[in-house]
Specification:
Helix content is 40%, strand content 15%. With 317 residues, the chain is an alpha/beta fold. It has a 6-stranded parallel beta sheet, with helices on both faces. Helix 10 links the parallel strand 10 and strand 11.
Amino acid sequence: MSTGDNLHVLHLTTSKEIFFTQQIETLEEKDVNCTVLVVPGAEQIDGDLGRTRGIKEYLQFVPEVRRELRRGDYDLIHANYGLTAPYAITQFQLPVVLTLWGSDVIGFDGLVTKACAWRADAVTVRSEEMREMLGREDAHIIPSGIDLTRFYPADRTEARERVGWDIEGIHVLFPYSPDYERKNYPLAKRVVEQTESKLGDTITLHTISGVPHKEVVHYINAADAVLLTSDHEGSPNTVKEAMACNVPVISTDVGDVHERLKDITLSGVGTTEQDLVGHLHRVLESGSRSDAREIVREVSWDRIGDRLLEIYTEASQ
C-alpha cells in the first residue's frame, strides 16, 4: 500500500459533521489524499444524522460510490458511520476501515452495522462500551479528537458578556437543544432544580442550538459547569471541549466519559440522578475550574491522526 503523500483514501459518510470534517483536515495535514462522498440528503437536525433520509436516498448512493471507485485510484475505503458500511464491503478490491461514531451500534442502525462489521479489515469505535456492544474484540478504541487551538480556557466574565449571559450568578450549560431526545434534557432540568435546593442559590440552566461551532468555546467558558445527561454516547466531544477549557463536567456514565474524567477532581460521572446532583453541587460549591486541559491532550486530533494512519497500514497488510 502507498504511504505518506501517495496514500489516497475514499471516505464514505452520512454527514459532514464538524468532527468528521476535523478528521479529514487532520489526515490531509498528514499528507493523506482524501475524497469524500456523502449519502444524498445529508441534512442535519441538531446533530441527528440522516434524520430526513429514507431508502430512496441510500439507494441513490450505490451507483455514486461505484462510479467513484471506477474513476479514482484508491488505496483504501474508510466508511464512517455504520450505515455506510454496506457500500464499502460490497466491493472486493480495496481494504476497508469502518469507523463507528456512537448511535450506530444500537437500534436498526446497529443491526446494519453488526451485519457488516465482520467484513471490514479494521474497525474503530469510540469506547469500550461500543466495542462490547459490537461484539468485535479486535476493534480499535479511538475517541473522536479535540482541537486544542479552538478550545482553550478564557476569562469567564468576558465569555459571559460575549454570549449575553448575566455576569453574576451561577450558570450551567446543557450543550444541546432541549428537543434532542437522546440527550435527555428533562433529566438535566431535574438535576439542576434539585441542586438549587441543596445549594440554596439560583442556577440558570442554558441550552444551545444552531450556534456555529467556533462560538461554542465562549459558551463553555461562560459556564460554571457543563452538564451532560445523555442516554447513550460514543465519545462525546462536548466533554473533551469542556476539558480543554478547564470547565468542570458532570455527566451520565455513557461512552468513554468515565475514562476521560476519571483523573479530574472537579468533574463527576453519575449512574443515578442523585449521583449527578451530588457531583454538580460539589462542583458549584467549590466555584473553581478544573485542571483537565493537560489530560485531554492525549486525544488531540494530531495524535488521533497518527493512530488512524497506523490502522490504515495494518488494514492493508
